[in-house]
Structures are given as structure tokens and as C-alpha cells.
Amino acid sequence: MKRIVNLFSILITTSCFTLSASGQHATSENAASLFMEAQFAKAKSLSGEAMQADRKDALAYAIHARTLMVDNDLSTAQVELLEAIRLSPGNGVYYAFQAACYQFQNNPAQAAKINEKALQLLASPKTALEYYARGIVEESMKKEDAALADYSKSIELNSRLALSYVKRGKIYAKRKLDDIGEYSKAIAINPAYGGAYFTRANSYYDKQQYDPAIADYSKVILLDPKDVDAYFNRGVMYKKKGMYDPALADYARVIELSPKDASIYGNRGNIYLLTEKPDQAFNDYSKAIELDPNSALYRVSRASVYLRWEQWDAAFNDYNKAIQLDPKNADAYLERGNIYLNQKQQPELAFADFNKVVEINPNYSNGYLNMGVVHHNKQQYAQAITDYTKAIETDPANQLAYFNRADAYESIGNIKQANIDRKKYADLGGKLQASGGKTRQEIFPQGTFDAKLAEAALGRGLSRIIGKACTKRDGLIFPAAGVKVMLFPVTPYLEEWYALRDKKESKKTGVYMSTEANKYAIEAITNSDGRFSFEGLKPGKYFIQLIHSFNQLKTAKVYTGSYTAQNGPVMQTTNYYYNQDYTVAREQRLERFVEIKEDGDTRKVTMANGLIKLCDF
């Protein structure tokens, strides 16, 4: 959206004039009075007549120059101001005009130099207009308190100085005072003062009072049907109210009046996107880029259309270009990070982009949310919870932050907090239905797995671990043949997992290490009698685990019937059985911590469920 601008900022911020004590023609004095009331066209006409009548009338040149500045004819205005100063070199008001003209010509250094001269000459103002002129110089020099006092003094001396009311209103707006009243006073002085309507409309916009803003912009358009900024800003107001058709009509008018204005295509593209017209939005964003190729904003906007079309590479390229053009564009980093995460499967690069978002804007809630997603996906739940919490602190209405944090809390076994977050998600409008509980809960350690530490622990050494694994059931020994054996370096994360498992594991709760932690392990396969070995280890502490799954052959007597016979007075019954073999699936988890103290050592270990002599070396 194009930023709301003040079309009449030139004439409001610097317009001033003065009446000399004597020697000025009545025509130029009348022109000055009209200018004071913001009747710029009439002031321009009268001051032009005064210039023709008397080529030595400094005031006529100054007033005419100021009206040219309103019309943005800055080069001609500068020539006429130089003539006014030549004719009256001691007049500080004319220097104030000249400084303003340099400012509008993007020459702040020269403007500052001239302002110093103007301030010296206006050290002891006497008239309302001299106070006004000193006020605009002081405001340009960031001396706001002094400027406000001078604007007020000018109004005290001349209640019809409409320009001072507008200037004072702008300072009031910064201080949260009644600026609307000041603009209204200026309008009361001159009901045709378009600049006052425009400024008042901008203030209504800032206060989110869109209807009176629309009314004031409409008044500006009535006074000047070719006022591009009034059409533009009124279109913005219509968009704010969801009135897209009149907004599009205003934007179309702006394009008629100013077809080379990139921002209008960008804004119209936004409406097309909101109204599900991505093709038209794409065309407008592309036109905006053509007209302003150095704008990052339009690249980000066009990329959003590519995202809708699932053209990830095209969107990625636009985000890259946007970041190149504006390295502080947080939106571009956020969306590029999403592509890294979801399409390119590069979470580290995604995290770097999300981290850049919050570096640029520490209050960007979704930056923290997405950082949390990266940690969440890596099963780093404590860090994910920290990020989600920060997202909620910066935006208490961030639904997804509550939803994701609930899942993270559940993953570390904090069901109570998970339920609180899910309720908050629902309270904020999230769709959450009641569901059956899980028959088995899966929880993980809160700590963060240190991949670099694990990798270093698995570095090459001269030591070895050899072992034998078996399970004893019903007095029988079962070698762990052809079983995968895992060796993990002992890290703080593994120790936390082991302690958590010891405390929480049950039939209803399983305790697991993260997927990443499971990657940092060495695998071996046992031979037929359960033997295995790990070679080339460094000194350190290791954890060995295997799951021994096997079938145990068992035999049961199966009843087939009976025979009963009379043997004298005794009735005898004989039962008949046969033996039936069957298998029982068994599973035994075998684990052990092993420490290698010296490089070159060999450790022999037995992996068994208890003391099984036949399983030893």
C-alpha cells in the first residue's frame, strides 16, 4: 500500500510572507493576505500583476515564488526568490522561503545554511508572518517547542493565518492533542483550502476514522478533480473498509492521471489478491516492478502470487531479489525461510532467515513462531517452547503459537500445560475438536542434543569393544544372532533421556531420543552365537543397546478325550493327551554403559538379562 502522503506538505511546511512597514504596493499586500488564507491561485495572479507593475517589489517576487513552489515549479521559484533577496537582503522571511525551496530540491546542506541566515534575521519578529516564518525555520531545524510557540504567537497576532493553524495542528498530532480542531479552524477561514482537508483526512486515517477521512478526500477531489494523492488515499480508505469496487475505481483514476506511478499498481494488485484474482494481481505487481525495479516491496508481493501457484523457485528468486534490494525486509526473509524449510528441506538456512526476521524486527511474532517450528521439527522441544512463548509475548493473539506450544509441551510429558494451550487456541477461534486420548504417550527429553559433541566423541581411535549378547528364558539360553547392536556416545542429552526413561517409562508411556540423536550411533550386527565388535573407538563413555527379538519353542499337552470303565465296584476314567509344539515371540532389551579409559584398550562386555555364565567370553 502506498503510504498516505500530504499533497500540500510543501505549502504547509514552508509557506510564509511578510508585509514591510512601508513602500510595498497594495496589490502585493493583497496577494500576501490571500496567501495567508491559503488562496494560492488568487495570490499567484495578484503577485504576478504586482511584479509586472513594479520590478522592484520584493514582496511580489517572494509571494509569486511561493505559489510556484505550490505548483512544484521549483527552478523558477528559486530564481524569483533570489531576486526578492537581492531587492531586500535583510528580510528573513525571504530567506526562509529560499531554504524551503532548496529543501524541496533535495539540497538539505544548502537549506540548512540558508535557515541559519533566516534565523539570524528573524531574531526579533514583530508581525504575525515573521513569527510564522521563524516557526517554519525552527521546525526545519528540529526545534519543535520553539516552532509551536511561534505558530501560536502568529495566530495570536493574526487569527486568519490559516497556514499557522495547519502547522500547529501537525505538531499537536505528534503530541496526541486536538489536531483535528486546528485543521477545522483553517477550513473555516478558507472553505476552499484543499490542503487543510487533505491533512485532516490523513489525521482521520491515523485515528482509524475512515468515513470522515473519505469525506475529506472527496472534498479535495471536488476542489481539484486531478488530485492524484486524494484519489489514491481515498482508495486506501475504501480498501480498509472492504469496499473493493470503489477502491478499484479510485485506483483506475490514479492510473489515468499518473500512469507511471508504480505504487498504484502495487496497491491495486493487493486488492486483486484479496478478491481472489491472482492473475490480475500478478500483472499489476509485474508492472510495478517494471516501473520501479529497485523496490523490494513489489518483489515480495509478486512472490506471494507465485506461492499460490506453487511455483516455489520463482517465488524464491523474487524473495532473493527483494533481500538484495532491501536487506532489512523482514517479510522477504520470513517467506524465503518457509521455502527453505518446507520445499528445499534446508532447516538450517530456514532458521537463519527466521532469526534474521527477529533481528530486524524484535516484535515480529511469526519470526519466533517459525524459529520454534524448526526446533520442533528437530525434536528440540524446550527450545521450541521458548520460541513459541516469545511469539505469544509479542502477539498474544497468535493462535498457531499456542497450538504448536501445546504439542511441544505434550512431547515432554507436560499434559496439563498442553491442555491449557489448546484451550487458549480454541478461545482465539482455532478449530479444535474433542478426541480420544492416546493409548500410549510418547515423550522426549527437554534438553537439546549437541551434534558436534556427539560427532567429536565418535572420532577415530585405537580402542575396541567386543561383546556377546544372549537372553535367558525358562532356563534356556538364546544367543542374539543376527541382531543390530547400537553404540551411542554418552552425552548430556543421552543421560537426560536415560534418567527420564527410568522415571517415566511404563506400559502407557514411551521415552525416546530425538531422530537426530539416533543418527549419531555406530551399528554392528551379531554373528550366530551373539558376538559383535566395535573398532577404532576413542577413550570415553559409551552406551550399547540392542533389542533381542526371538521365537521360543514350547510344548503343551492337548486333551483329546477320555475312557471310563467299570472295574468291579470301582469306576475308572483314563484321560488321553498328545504333545503339541508352538512358538512364543519374545523380545528383550539389552543395554549397558561401557567406558574406555586408555586409547588402545579392548573392553569385553556381556549383554544379557542377568548373570548368564554361558554368555560370557
TrEMBL record:
Q: Which residues form the signal peptide?
A: 1-26
Keywords per UniProt: Repeat, Signal, TPR repeat
The TPR repeat units are at 194-227, 228-261, 262-295, 296-329, 365-398
Show the InterPro entries listed in the entry: TPR-like_helical_dom_sf, TPR_rpt, Ycf3
Q: Which Pfam families match?
A: TPR_1 (PF00515), TPR_11 (PF13414)
Cite the PROSITE patterns for this sequence: PROKAR_LIPOPROTEIN, TPR, TPR_REGION
PANTHER family assigned: TETRATRICOPEPTIDE REPEAT PROTEIN 6, UDP-N-ACETYLGLUCOSAMINE--PEPTIDE N-ACETYLGLUCOSAMINYLTRANSFERASE SPINDLY-RELATED
Q: What is this protein called?
A: Tfp pilus assembly protein PilF
